[in-house]
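ARCHIVE CARD
CATEGORY: sequence design from structure
SOURCE FIELD: tokenized fold
FIELD CONTENT:
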């Protein structure tokens, strides 16, 4: 039996919320039910960061996985773009 392909998303790290955990915001668009205009929406997800390598402002790719805790169901696969140091 073959396993289904897992979902992947690209989002921005909004905060570090504890050891090996980050919050990632990703944006998407949906059409309005009546007027069909594109509406921007965003979702915040808790993500497992095994090596504590992500910083606030990084653009990361995340993948769905089995539940690790009450809130964490995603993990970091790679850092797409590092945040700019000021």
């Amino acid at each position: 039996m073959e396993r289904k392909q897992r979902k992947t998303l690209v989002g921005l790290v909004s905060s570090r919320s504890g050891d090996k955990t980050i919050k990632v915001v990703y944006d998407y668009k949906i059409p309005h039910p009546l007027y069909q205009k594109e509406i921007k929406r965003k979702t915040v997800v808790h993500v497992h960061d095994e090596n504590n390598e992500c910083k606030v402002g990084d653009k990361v790719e995340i993948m769905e996985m089995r539940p690790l805790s009450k809130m964490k169901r995603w993990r970091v696969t790679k850092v797409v773009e590092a945040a700019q140091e000021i």
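CARD ANNOTATION: The chain has a mean pLDDT of 94. The radius of gyration is 15 Å.
SHELF: design records, drawer C
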